[in-house]
Amino acid sequence: MLRELFTEKARREVVDYGLLLLEKKLTLGTAGNISAFDPETGLLAISPSGIAYEQTRPEDVVICDLNGKVVDGERRPSSELGLHAALYRVRPDIRGIVHTHSMYATTLACMQEPIRPLHFAILSAGEGEVPLADYATFGTPELADAAARAIGRMNAVLLRNHGILTVGKDIAAAFRVMEDCEWCAEVQWRCMCAGTPAVLTEEQLADAARMYRGYGQKNK
Ligand SMILES: [Zn+2]
């Protein structure tokens, strides 16, 4: 993609989806961050550090390379820039990342419980459970490494005692995974409060995954 085309579109999306995080109650204050990556230019657009989503303007969104060098923008990039860059390195298929401290996913992350496949809505995050990355202090290269090691082929990873990160083919896709994970995390937490959640069997999950991918038209 042309550099200007990417930066303009990505800056607008980082602002718009930041506002949507607030609207959908997936974050509070300045917690969380959003990025987009363009492999052709090698550039990444990421939320600025410490600016409220309502006050973020497209020009506040920072354009960097994967080594963290700022190429355009007056602001400091999010303190989790290294986390985003590590995920783009380990998953060349992704172009968008959303990280939040959403209530229920963070609750499970603080219980050091993965999001388990209790309901087929989890399938937007992949076929399995949402894994837990090893604990590391926020904003450190150790956290970036831990998340990059843990995510595998899933589209989401819980950060122990911290929050959740989701990925996708663009920011919109990563955002949808975030909403699904948060809903599944709430269901799981409610089940855990009421008793022992019944996890789908591998076969049930595989069957649901076939349907999810648009297969399984057995009656035709
Ligand atoms: Zn965080």
Structure description:
- With 220 residues, the protein is of the alpha+beta class.
- The protein is built from 6 helices and 8 strands.
- It has a single domain, classed as L-fuculose-1-phosphate Aldolase.
- Helices cover 39% and strands 15% of the residues.
- The chain has an 8-stranded mixed sheet with strand order 4-3-2-1-5-8-7-6, sandwiched between helices.
- Strand 1 and strand 2 form a beta hairpin.
- Helix 2 runs parallel beside helix 4 and helix 3 crosses helix 5.
- The longest helix is centred in the last third of the chain and has 24 residues.
- The structure holds zinc ion.
- Zinc ion binds next to loops.
Secondary structure blueprint with pairings:
Blueprint: H1 3-23, E1 33-38, E2 43-46, E3 62-65, E4 70-72, H2 81-90, E5 96-100, H3 103-111, E6 132-133, H4 141-151, E7 156-159, E8 163-168, H5 171-194, H6 202-212
Parallel strand pairs: 6-7
Antiparallel strand pairs: 1-2, 1-5, 2-3, 3-4, 5-8, 7-8
The structure holds zinc ion.
